[in-house]
Design goal:
Radius of gyration: 18 Å
Protein name: Crp/Fnr family transcriptional regulator
Shape: globular
Largest sheet: 6 strands, antiparallel
Number of strands: 6
Order of helices and strands: HHEEEEEHEHHHHHH
Helix content: 40-55%
Domain Cyclic nucleotide-binding: 34-69
Organism: Flavobacterium panici
Strand content: 15-25%
CATH topology of the domain at 2-117: Jelly Rolls
Pfam family, one: cNMP_binding
Low-confidence stretches: none
């Protein structure tokens, strides 16, 4: 839970008493490699903050092709947010790529925590805003940048993930073939 406190305090200060009131809203869960936290059709009951491990958030199209929306690692938040906020069946999958731990927060818990401690509402707004900005930047990059530019952006933003995530998933995330990724990888060494 100390990692949670440090994460929160990157945005807002909290007293010991306030943190004690925050902790009960989060439950910790160990996750094994290849274990799914959310599958299509489930209700996404939780928003997750990653304590450790690497996760992949993706959806499958009608042809069964996987489209990676997000990789997530320590201190990142993830869920199928359409399902989580609208309390509808999930369209996304969330799978663990490297065993780890997550902290789970229900929507009801998030709302109660925001009411009980107004500064947490500010914290959640800042986190959601940063996530929205990152998502827009990703969409713009996919729509307007050439594969080499997308590769360089990814390598610069997430150098630690380049070594930990199988190349086939990086290729899917970047919207390129495995062969194109190999050319980009060897051309940028």
């Amino acid at each position: 839970m100390e990692k949670l406190r440090k994460h929160i305090e990157e945005i807002i200060p909290v007293t010991d008493e306030e943190f004690e009131s925050i902790k009960p809203f989060f439950t910790i869960r160990k996750v094994l490699k290849n274990q799914y936290l959310i599958s299509q059709g489930d209700e996404a009951k939780y928003e997750y903050i990653i304590v450790s491990g690497i996760f992949r958030v993706f959806y499958l199209d009608d042809d069964g092709k996987e489209h990676i929306v997000q990789f997530a690692t320590e201190n990142w938040w993830m869920s199928d947010y359409i399902s989580y906020f609208n309390q509808k069946p999930a369209n996304m999958y969330v799978v663990c790529m490297e065993a780890g731990e997550v902290l789970c927060l229900t929507l009801e818990g998030r709302e109660k925590l925001s009411i009980a401690l107004h500064k947490m509402e500010h914290f959640f707004r800042v986190k959601l805003t940063k996530g929205y900005i990152a998502l827009q930047q990703r969409i713009i990059s996919l729509l307007s940048n050439k594969p080499e530019q997308r590769y360089k952006e990814f390598a610069n933003l997430y150098p630690n993930l380049m070594q930990k995530i199988p190349k086939k998933y990086i290729a899917e995330y970047l919207g390129v073939s495995r062969e194109t990724l190999s050319r980009l990888y060897s051309g940028n060494k």
